[in-house]
């Protein structure tokens, strides 16, 4: 998925079903596969990609932040 397409999905809150978008603490969590997750932090005027990695690393990231 191109970044521009993702931003359109984010603005409309209509994500492809396979992306499995959900809230995870202050982040929007995207499960891009069974193994990888992306955390996005909404900020004033946009979004910030704060984490990309496997689920195990994602759990460790959440515990630190």
Protein model, in words:
The chain has 65 residues and is an alpha+beta fold. The chain has one domain. The chain is 31% helix and 40% strand. It is built from two helices and four strands. Strands 1-2-3-4 form a four-stranded antiparallel sheet, covered by helices on one side. A hairpin with a 2-residue loop joins strand 1 (21-24) and strand 2. The protein starts with a helix and ends with a helix. The model has no long low-confidence stretch (mean pLDDT 86).
Helicity, in percent? 25-40%
Q: From the alpha carbons, calculate the radius of gyration and give it in angstroms.
A: 11 Å
Question: Hey, roughly how much beta strand do the residues contain?
Answer: 35-45%
The residue ranges in which pLDDT falls below 50 over 5 or more consecutive positions are: none
Output mean pLDDT. 86
Number of helices: 2
Structural class given helices, strands, pairing?
alpha+beta
Count of β-strands: 4
SSE succession? HEEEEH
- Count of structural domains: 1
Task: Give the CA-based shape.
Answer: globular
With strands numbered from the N-terminus, the spatial order across the biggest sheet is 1-2-3-4
Biggest beta sheet attributes: 4 strands, antiparallel
Distance between the termini: 27 Å
